[in-house]
Amino acid sequence: MKQRKRGAICVPQQKVLVESKTQGSIALKALMREALIIVLGVAGLALSARIRLILPFTPVPFTLQTLVLFYEILALGRRAWRITATYVLLGLAGLPVFAYGGGPGYVSSPTFGYLLGFTVAAAVGGWIIGGGLLVTPRRLLTALAASITAVYALGAAYLAAWVTILSNAPLHVALAMAVAQGIAPFIALDVVKALIAAGALYATNKAATWIRYGSRR
């Protein structure tokens, strides 16, 4: 018969099982919550892509996607890139979540660079925001500026490459055309959308705080 070592602590097996189940339940709830956030985020990008205005002088449509993108970056921080990456992968897999549908052939679209820019913007902007609940105005504006820069840098570069391949235009001509058609018509509106996203985040945070604490008073 084995003797218990002096000083050893005996933990009831039932307690261990209860703690294990509790930890498993917490992990499952966290996973489900994360999945729900991704689903809602992807749905927001997909729906905002359908609200589009086709302009006659550029292949790039006006949509509300960047408004949703900026809000998700500010609200989710480091986790925002998971939404944009999932969104792009689902679109390439064939789901009609992009402005003009979906499918692997979308990589040949002149606007595909903006979709790549979404994920880079979410990664960079989300990293700047971080994972904290309190974000200073300076950090918020820096994240928005970095996000806008990432979207336009990749979007314009991809558009310039598309113009070069299609028309065999010199690179400097293609870049000038990409700036004229892919940046200049939209940059001011995207700055406004970034400010709206910041205001919306402030409003939702205030509402959430009131629901959680103010309604109990």
Structure description:
It is a single chain. Helix 3 packs antiparallel against helix 4. It contains seven helices and two strands. It starts with 12 loop residues before the first helix and ends in a 5-residue tail after the last helix. The protein has a two-stranded antiparallel sheet. The mean pLDDT is 88. The chain has one domain: Arp2/3 complex 21 kDa subunit ARPC3 (Orthogonal Bundle), CATH 1.10.1760. The protein is 70% helix and 2% strand. It is an all-alpha fold.
Instruction: State Rg.
Output: 23 Å
Quickly count the domains.
1
Helix content: 55-70%
- Class derived from helix and strand content: mainly alpha
Mean pLDDT over all positions: 88
Order of strands, widest sheet: 1-2
Spell out the helices and strands N to C: HEEHHHHHH
The CATH topology? Arp2/3 complex 21 kDa subunit ARPC3
Low-confidence stretches: none
CATH class category name: Mainly Alpha
**Tally of DSSP β-strands:** 2
Overall 3D geometry?
A: globular
Membrane topology: Multi-pass membrane protein
Keywords: Cell membrane, Membrane, Transmembrane, Transmembrane helix, Transport
Family: Belongs to the BioY family.
Subcellular location: Cell membrane
